[in-house]
Amino acid sequence: MDRLPEQLDFNLLKVFEAIYTEQSISRAGEVLHVTPSAVSHALKRLRERMGEPLFERRGQQMVPTPSCQRMAPQLLATLAQLRQLLQSWGKFEPVSAEQHFQLGISEALESLLLPQVCDVLQQHAPHCRLTSRRFSRDQMERLLVHRQLDLIIDIQALTPSGIAHHPLMDDQLVVASNDQLEQLNLKQYQQAKHIEVSSRPSGRVLEEYALDKRGLSRQVAVRCQSYQSALALAAQSELLVTLPSSIALAHNCDDMQIWPLPFTTSHISIHLYWHQSRENDPALQWLIGQLNQVFAVETAQATDVSL
């Protein structure tokens, strides 16, 4: 054990972290972007260095041994501190940086945000890259911990203790219809047929929470994957689509009517999420600042939507 510090390398510790968190060789490989056989080989080396099996296979899971379970929290905390030290090493210079930022965001918000973010990067960080992709909310912590995503933008939600977040903007729900509708009251809203939007094949959508709070219901005729498709369909039919005002603003709705929601409801709060271990990462903090500026502009514009 006296030779352990000089024998262990950082990559083996990353493998340990991934297996411990994922409890799976294959998922650890996905996180580390290596093959499962490479993870197994690294685990074998780690076991030899530690003189301890560390994990036991139970079905498809890799379960920590009692000694591993006892020592892992301290080891992972030390690893997080080391990452923070490396992140704060040196100054982030946007003009010359070649950073690749990974942003988790829904398709609906992407159409609102991405053009402005790309414009900011082109002006201030021309050598940086941005990848925007969908994510599953139940995987938020795992994606941020393993840096598969740097940041996530989503509606306000309960988060694990290791996830930091703050509000970016408040939004409100509106209703889009074809340009033939002359008025929209609560009775008309409930009697009409609606389009709901979700990338998931089933499950509750955003406006249903507002309806449930008021004990209201509606008739859903179509469920589709994007607001762009929903608005195109509503423009050519008598169907209604309920959506955030900022998304209505981002799409061309000149040939449609945009109505206030015919019942009172609280605002929608959109938040920015990142892992607390990245608090001292200068590149990430710079990006957070840029997103704050973009959303400040979007919030101001959304309040000017003509209802």
From TrEMBL:
Gene3D superfamilies: Periplasmic binding protein-like II, Winged helix-like DNA-binding domain superfamily/Winged helix DNA-binding domain. It comes from the Bacteria. CDD domains: PBP2_Nitroaromatics_like. GO terms for molecular function: DNA binding; DNA-binding transcription factor activity. Residues 8-65 form the HTH lysR-type domain. It holds the Pfam family LysR_substrate. Keywords: DNA-binding, Transcription, Transcription regulation. Belongs to the LysR transcriptional regulatory family. PANTHER family: HTH-TYPE TRANSCRIPTIONAL REGULATOR LEUO-RELATED, TRANSCRIPTIONAL REGULATORY PROTEIN. This is LysR family transcriptional regulator.
